[in-house]
Input
Amino acid sequence: SKPLLLVLGDQLSHDLAILCDAPANAVVALCEVKDEGRYVPHHPQKIAMMLAAMRHFAEELRQRGVSVHYSRLDDDDNAHSLIAEAERLAERYACDSIQAVRPGEWRLWQAMQARRDAALPWQLHEDTRFFTTPDDFAAWAEGRKSLRMEYFYREQRRRSGLLMEGSEPAGGKWNFDHDNRQPLAADAAPPAPPRHRRDTITRDVLALVAEHFDDHFGDLTGFNWAVTRRQALADLRHFLANALPDFGRFQDAISDAEPWLFHSRLAPALNIGLLSPREVCEAAERAYHEGRAPLNAVEGFIRQILGWREYVRGLYWTQMPAYKTRNHLAARRQLPDFYWSGDTELRCLRRAIEMTRDNAYAHHIQRLMVTGNFALLCDVAPEALCDWYLAVYADACEWVELPNTLGMVLHADGGLMGSKPYCASGKYIDRMSDHCRQCRYDPKQITGTHACPLNSLYWHFLERHAERLSDNPRMALIYGSLRRMTDAKRDAIRQQAEAFLARLDGEESYGGGTQH
Ligand code: FAD
Output
């Protein structure tokens, strides 16, 4: 027998299940296809990173003596869908089966499953590069009333042994988040990321992407993503030495000037397979044991990967396809045009969108509490917001983007992922960032021409969704404040918010005031 081994763009790991003990006659296929590049307008940096990483990985395989077929976007005979292209290649190389590993998208997994009994059968394998499989998650979730991440995470700590002292968590606590909520200190100096060299492969890809995708949102100039394992390891070392020690304390901080702060920038490399989550967590744990980083930072960092990343993946695979259609708060507004231009007077939104345009990156709190919170408060439709997040970030893959956007940000899954919506007013942005000082709006005012729109939107959101949210014990305090407001104050707030939303919708229908 002779298999075709289909390696997807986010499976660039030499220890991928189908590559580990591949027979000598196997043909490995890597395919650039238009179908995958175009269904949302991906950021040019994201496309360039994927293509450059795929081309480098194909070279590495060839150097290891593997026979590789690499389909390029501009090949004349390219079938331009993964299924069709793999089947075309299998025939061409006289293979009798196609082997593939679970992809990052339900849609593609279904398409593969449907070909299992085809004349040229697809043999499908579990992805072993995570700490857990979807079956592990399903077993954990079974019979539980609530699927809180924190409990899942504790089980993964025990299972992996990461940051454990016998059966107890290191430092006597599972979670040190209490220490991790500081705004950026005036004297904090976030490190500049290392600059990666652009070899011929990368330069060719950048030229190709500049030519074919210049109509997509996003600037290619500052491209600096790791496209080889070697570069990804350099980013990891840089993070451990320069940013991890302060990762914890400034994890929630937002800066008007600094896009990366003390974040790792490792999500793209993790998601396409250049780094394994296990090696990254183990490296961080070593930094703690060797006294190079404090426990609150290391625990906070490991929780993001061992906890959140595995948890959202489990949720995705066990809840799809229904998950994608959920809309608990019946949100219907289209995405404001300025998400594609940054053309808004709200300084926090403008800067988050500009950074996204320049870097194909915004850190977690910008995604959750700036672009996410605004969309939540304005009832933006889940589908519209999900498409945006999937398009604009270098690390965006559906399995991780969807639960974060639909569940964590929009509360559209009815509280499966978070027990309450992360809604916030301008006060939060003022506390955690330096944006408001440079904004034309005042975070301390709720009504009037200078009032930060987030404030009236916040109360308006709570009032609008009282039926669904006011019974939530975690929201009791805030609904208490709403109830104690005078009718006159509530009316004024409602009018302020409705006027803002009407302007937002007006701009939409004219497409005016904004530019792409
Ligand atoms: P760090 O802050 O350095 O965190 C370390 C690592 O932890 C990340 O690299 C990532 O692998 C993991 N991680 C952290 N938070 C999460 C989380 N909530 N869910 C899953 N993994 C997490 N992450 C993606 O990888 N792809 C996405 O498409 C994506 N979409 C998101 C959409 C929204 C609306 C929100 C709120 C979050 C999203 N995230 C996504 C999670 C998180 O924001 C990014 O992983 C993180 O910002 C990437 O930057 P970093 O590597 O510097 O992360």
About this structure: The two ends are 52 Å apart (CA to CA). Residues 509-516 have pLDDT under 50 and may be disordered.
